[in-house]
Amino acid sequence: MRRLVKAEFRRLFTTALWRWGPLAAVVCGGVLVGLATLVGPENFEPSMPGVRTEEGVRTVLSLTGLTVIVPALFGATAVTSEYRHKTITFTFLFAPRRQTVLAAKLLTYAVAGAAYGLVVTASAAAGLYGGAALRGVSVGAGPGTVAELLLRLAAAMTVYTMLGVGIGALLRNQTAALAALGLYLYMVEHALALIPGVNLIYPYLPGGATAALTNFNLISQAAAEISVSSARLLPPVLGALVLAAYAVTATALAIGVPMRRDVT
Amino acid sequence: MTMSNQVMVRGLTRHFGQVAAVTDLSFTVEPGVVTGFLGPNGAGKTTTLRMLLGLVRPTSGTATIGGRRYADLTHPARTVGAVLDASSFHPGRSARNHLRVYGDMIGCSERRIDEVVDLLGMPEFADRPVRGFSTGMRQRLNLATAMLGDPPVLVLDEPGNGLDPEGIAWLRRFLRAMADEGRTVLVSSHVLSEAEQMVDQVLVIRRGRLMSAGPLAGLTGDGSTLEQAFLRLTGGAA
User: Fold this and answer.
1) Does A2 touch chain B (CB under 8 A)?
2) What are the contacts of B16-24 at 24+ separation with CB within 8 A?
3) Phi and psi at residue A7, in whole multiples of 5°?
4) Interface pTM (ipTM) of the complex?
5) Which among A45, A77, A228, B107 is most buried, taking Cβ atoms within 10 Å?
6) Closest Cα partner for A76 from A184, A2, A4, A203?
């Protein structure tokens, strides 16, 4: 397994894709949070509490939670790229016990996803404090609260990267993975969150669990305004466990079903 | 020659829906010679080789290397070196880094990477990204990947495809050298004129069934070319 993980890291660092990772992370973290802080949530439509309140700080930092599709797609690439370029043939020849290949990819991309998450959150912190300093407003949450929220977001990024690996292994095609993730994260889940009755399961969907983990979610707030029966989010720890369960399920499916398929 | 280098196929069958791609195929491939696996396109060569290497599941029958299925080998890539696609590389990765990735998977040293780069005559282009490679360069990188584990068995699907005459001559010398070292060499082809100069033993397959197996001389001994013998065997279907 050590050898396979080493090979996966080399696979990751010997193409150009990974170089876009830090850039994407800074855009999804620092740039997004910095802009939101500069504009100020009190000027959002609808207006929200400003960053001089703790709720306002949560609002701007949690915007990064909307970009989880980026690490998910990055994780999916781990597998879809192999099918696209047919390197999967050599990979399965060199490691015919295919589940070990997937396990090595999950491990590698958990580390890479965590690194991505840390760049996102570090730059988000810079965006928050930098933006607040530029506007001359004080940050309405203590460093401990900010650090905790950022670490939760980094954890969410890590789990979404692993979810992406599982989805990539299931679908095997990058466009299909992009379409499935995009449709699900930005349409299906939001729609479900708005339907009375159905929205009771929303806390257990990946988006709901992410919202629970980050303790804030624009969608659930919007849903709460529209629908009277909006379900309450899970506690953060449970949200993290639900997300982890999705990653494990995607992985188990990826190992159990498609890894047995013919490679032609 | 050791039993461990023998490729044995017994009653191998694969159906894709209603289509029988391979039917009750049985043959043995011995070490020390180059064995050609010949047949028209769609005859079932690739499916057979992929079943031998555990990439496609047989409907029934077995394919073993030294008595064991590929997936059950202790060191699969150190036992069998295989090339199945004309190009299976990430275009942005250099040849050397491609070799390092697969070398990592089986614990090859950097020295071994240098050795296969030299063996396949690739020092000049090993550090360039694969996207600019010619067919011949890709075929060398394929073979270099297969040779990483210094395997006693080589299984190559159409390695001559797209090669120029110089490339074919080089491939012929390479396969001959590998067989002379005592390796088992199984190489498929649908180009008979090319195969005729390359192989000692022939397996002829048509519509998923074995038509003939034996020394090349047995087919062409009457003075006919391999192509004539082949057309006779396959009823002109080639």
Assistant:
1) no
2) B20/B208, B21/B47, B21/B208, B22/B47, B22/B48, B22/B51, B22/B58, B22/B208, B23/B207, B23/B208, B23/B209, B24/B61, B24/B209
3) -65, -40
4) 0.93
5) A77
6) A184
* Closest C-alpha among B83, B76, B77, B24 to residue B50: B83
Q: How do the domains of chain A map onto residue ranges?
A: 2-259
- From chain A, the residues in CB contact with B51 under 8 A are none
B195, B198, B205: which is closest to B39 by C-alpha? B205
B88 part of contact set with chain A, CB < 8 Å? yes
Residue spans of the domains in chain B: they are 3-81+152-233
pLDDT tens digits for B126-181?
999 999 999 999 999 999 999 999 999 999 999 988 888 888 999 999 999 999 99
**Quick check: B141 and B133 in contact, CB under 8 A?**
yes
| Identity at A165, one-letter amino acid code | V
Q: Is A14 on the interface with B (CB under 8 A)?
A: yes
Q: Which residues of A touch B89 (CB under 8 A)?
A: 85, 87
Residue in chain B lying closest to A101 (CA): B105
Question: How is domain B3-81+152-233 classified at the CATH fold level?
Answer: Rossmann fold (3.40.50)
Dihedral, CA atoms, A46, A47, A50, A51, nearest 10 degrees? Answer: 10
